[in-house]
Amino acid sequence: MKDLFGKAILDYQLGNYTEDIKTETSISEEDDLPLPYLFRDYDEMPSLEKKALDITSGSVLDIGCGAGSHSLYLQNTRGLEVTAVDISPNAIEACKLRGVKNAISLDVMTMTSNNKYDTLLLLMNGAGMCGRLEKLTAFLEKLKTLIAPGGQILLDSSDIIYMFEDDEEDGGVWIPADKSYYGEVDYIVKYKGEEEPAFDWMYIDYDTLKKAADYNGFKCTCILEGEHYDYLAQLSL
């Protein structure tokens, strides 16, 4: 991996912002992801993220923290103890430069269960990092080992079934045959003339998440629905 996403974040933090990240998926055309958006303040965040941060409590594990905007708010404004983790070393370096006190570069699937957290935070479609629906059980089982008694997982995602809607009046949908679940996509990141190899990503609808959560011993609650097929869910044991 070239860590282009993290490189872009670090460039922005170091004052080397000259262009935005370009993203593309197997079901969508190339689009710009503005770097300033990743550095947004609480007031600039969408309602789902604000709600998640409002109900976050206790010790926090911010999984896939990116530029660390959620961690900084929880640390500096809410006064919570936050551990920010991301697979990107460059993103973690940016987090440290921004003032995140405890930022670590690692894959959450490799974390040991020595530490338990009251809130596991997976925002900006954090559930998608497991990549494929068949890996969701293992992902949830890993998260289970990191939750303190009485703790919670807060995650948001989207139901992208609307992207397969038929233009005809019968309201049908077209589902690609090369994926076991319509929310699975191949994700590509481009930055400053370089391109990351495509990696697995997933958008999961709430009903499918709830079924998986129930199967793995979680109680799943929809906390808030967004304006465009998105939602915030809370999982607890």
UniProtKB/TrEMBL annotation:
CDD domains: AdoMet_MTases
One of the Pfam families matching this protein, by short name: Methyltransf_25
GO biological process: methylation
InterPro entries: Methyltransf_25, SAM-dependent_MTases_sf
Entry keyword Methyltransferase: yes
Keyword presence, Cell inner membrane: no
An annotated Gene Ontology molecular function: methyltransferase activity
UniProt KW keywords: Methyltransferase, Transferase
Name of the protein described by the UniProt record: SAM-dependent methyltransferase
Source taxonomy: Bacteria, Pseudomonadati, Bacteroidota, Flavobacteriia, Flavobacteriales
